[in-house]
Design goal:
Largest sheet of chain B: 4 strands, mixed
Shape of chain A: globular
Mean pLDDT of chain A: 96
Shape of chain B: globular
Oligomer: heterodimer
Largest interface: A-B, 25 and 31 residues
Number of strands of chain A: 14
Mean pLDDT of chain B: 96
Low-confidence stretches of chain B: none
Structural class of chain A: mainly beta
Number of helices of chain A: 2
Order of helices and strands of chain B: EHEEEHHEHEEHEEHHEHEEEEHHH
Number of helices of chain B: 11
Helix content of chain B: 10-25%
Strand content of chain B: 15-25%
Radius of gyration of chain B: 21 Å
Helix content of chain A: under 10%
Low-confidence stretches of chain A: none
Number of strands of chain B: 14
Structural class of chain B: alpha+beta
């Protein structure tokens, strides 16, 4: 997938999933699959989800662009219910994330591994504007490293979520987070949690074990 | 396993269902926004559906060491937090006409909803009160269920706590806890529960529910302290038992089971052959050892009736109030509390 360069587009603008620059991108369709039951991190979760379908969202359309400083993804998927603030103890928020390997060889399917960190940019419907930067080094190790560097905004309309997740290409962080450059390549994966299906944590739909390729157009380059 | 374990014993023969413990806890810990429906300490009539509704049938815990699927109770199952017309009654200038009314839809469930209903047919009807808090289990299902390692069991005293910075409100812990003593805070979006009043305990003060109990029901202390009440009641005299031991979490709250009055027969005569509270019901709550515990209690009572002395009954009666707290008997008013 190509992330075209859009000169001078402020982040606030990119965060609007209906904004003009997004018309210049070509969305790619990702087939999603449920995370395997055996890879859920605790026995209680495996017991609770035995015999249940994991991964309610089956496909996501994804597009990306950058302005030389910030890389933004727009994820779009069909969802009959807008689940934002959980209004009951049994209600969960819709959520989505883009995952990057921080080092070569970090596996997507197991959220990285020891000394093989992965970095997620995470959006959740109950805290729409406050994205999270998450680092994991294997199943059950996810931790939030900051709640300030990832910018997010989701709009639910006509049975579809359109969610933008953005972060500066390079960030100051002592944590193992991905650093990106215009004009170069990257790998990513996508996950979506369907709140009405009680998906949260490792219970989610993801774009599969294979990383997807992303090339960031050079600054000044054409889409 | 923790080095030491704090525990409580609740003497069900003394609990009056006054809810002072419930309110002591509420006033101290669950007054913030998002906590309205939370009652970390509850008292319910048994037999009954309990709080949250039907928690005993909600799964979770372990069977033969294997984690079991559990159910998430709804806010309504917990009883939710009813809205009242406080403003109108207290400040509306209608003190002699307005009265407290629930606002909005009439609820059909609440905490302690089935108070004093109990079971059995008159004149052999029966009930007792069952106070509950988090059991600070030795094998906590909540801790093991959490994928984020947000729940810890403290090395020094076995208190089980949720780290709200790590918690992301997934509620796998709520599903897994077979006692359904974990609550979800919709405002902070984290799970919360009884903390065994650890800030008090660290200063040598017993938990609020125990210290405020007017019935001297709640004993506190380390399980391995031979001078404390817990060791005496649980280990030495074996009259205090965990609730639903078959859930496999090894709770650290123990109960002295309720003795019952005799039954009346069809002619209205006292029938001493069977207790009012059926043995099988108590066995279903506390396991088969409950019958031995009741036998010990009866034997010790008979001994004192005959003029003898009983260490067990002395402990249970708690002549000396402070003796109930296993050394955690400092007056909270004597401490300068700092809010952190």
């Amino acid at each position: 997938m190509l992330a075209p360069f859009v000169r001078g587009a402020p982040v606030e603008w990119l965060l609007d999933p209906a904004a003009d620059p997004w018309h210049k991108t070509r969305a790619e369709r990702l087939a999603m699959t449920g995370t395997p039951l055996v890879l859920q991190p605790t026995a209680a979760i495996r017991a609770a989800w035995t015999g249940k379908h994991i991964g309610a969202v089956e496909k996501v359309e994804i597009a990306a662009l950058h302005n030389g400083e910030v890389l933004a993804f727009r994820l779009e998927w069909a969802d009959g219910s807008e689940n934002r603030d959980p209004n009951d103890t049994t209600a969960f928020s819709d959520a989505a994330a883009v995952l990057f390997p921080v080092v070569d060889g970090a596996p997507a399917i197991s959220m990285g591994g020891p000394k093989l960190p992965v970095n997620a940019w995470y959006w959740r419907g109950d805290s729409d504007a406050q994205g999270r930067q998450v680092v994991a080094e294997g199943i059950g190790t996810s931790r939030t490293v900051d709640v300030s560097l990832v910018h997010t905004h989701g709009v639910w309309k006509d049975g579809r979520w359109r969610v933008v997740i953005a972060r500066a290409l390079r960030v100051q962080s002592s944590e193992p987070v991905v650093q990106l450059d215009a004009g170069s390549g990257a790998h990513f994966a996508v996950a979506v949690w369907e709140g009405s299906h009680r998906e949260r944590g490792g219970i989610k739909a993801f774009s599969g074990a294979e990383w997807r390729s992303l090339s960031l157009a050079p600054v000044g380059g054409k889409a | 396993m923790s080095k030491r374990q704090l525990a409580m014993v609740f003497d069900l023969n003394k609990c009056l269902g006054c809810q002072t413990c419930t309110i002591a806890c509420k006033r101290l810990w669950t007054r913030e926004e998002g906590m309205e429906y939370m009652w970390w300490a509850t008292v319910n009539t048994m037999p009954g559906r309990g709080t949250p509704r039907d928690w005993e049938q909600s799964g979770g815990g372990f069977r033969d060491g294997v984690a079991q699927a559990g159910r998430l109770p709804t806010k309504e199952d917990f009883g939710d937090a009813w809205e009242f017309n406080h403003e109108e009654v207290f400040f509306g200038g209608k003190g002699d006409s307005a009265y407290l009314k629930i606002q909005g839809q009439e609820p059909d469930w609440g905490p302690n909803w089935d108070e004093d209903q109990g079971a059995g047919e008159y004149p052999n009807s029966y009930y007792f009160y069952l106070p509950r808090i988090c059991n600070h289990c030795t094998h906590p299902a909540c801790l093991e269920a959490c994928p984020r390692k947000a729940i810890i069991k403290r090395e020094e005293d076995g208190i089980v706590l949720i780290d709200e910075d790590r918690c992301r409100g997934y509620r796998f812990c709520m599903e897994a806890c077979p006692y359904k003593k974990i609550y979800f805070n919709q405002v902070k979006k984290v799970s919360q529960k009884c903390i065994f009043c650890f800030p008090r305990v660290e200063q040598g003060v017993a938990p609020a529910c125990a210290r405020q109990c007017p019935g001297r029901v709640r004993f506190v202390g380390y399980k391995d302290d031979p001078n404390g009440p817990i060791w005496k009641l649980v280990e030495k005299w074996k009259v205090a038992l965990p609730l639903h031991p078959e859930f496999g979490t090894e709770p650290n709250v123990y109960y002295v089971p309720p003795l019952s009055p005799p039954r009346f027969d069809a002619a209205g005569n006292i029938d001493e052959s069977k207790p009012r509270i059926p043995d099988e019901y108590l066995v279903s709550l506390f396991g088969p050892k409950v019958l031995e515990a009741l036998a010990v209690l009866k034997a010790e009572m008979a001994k004192t009736r005959a003029g003898g002395k009983s260490e067990l009954l002395d402990v249970l009666i708690a002549y000396e109030w402070k003796s109930m707290f296993g050394g955690f008997d400092k007056d909270p008013a004597s401490i300068e509390w700092k809010k952190v």
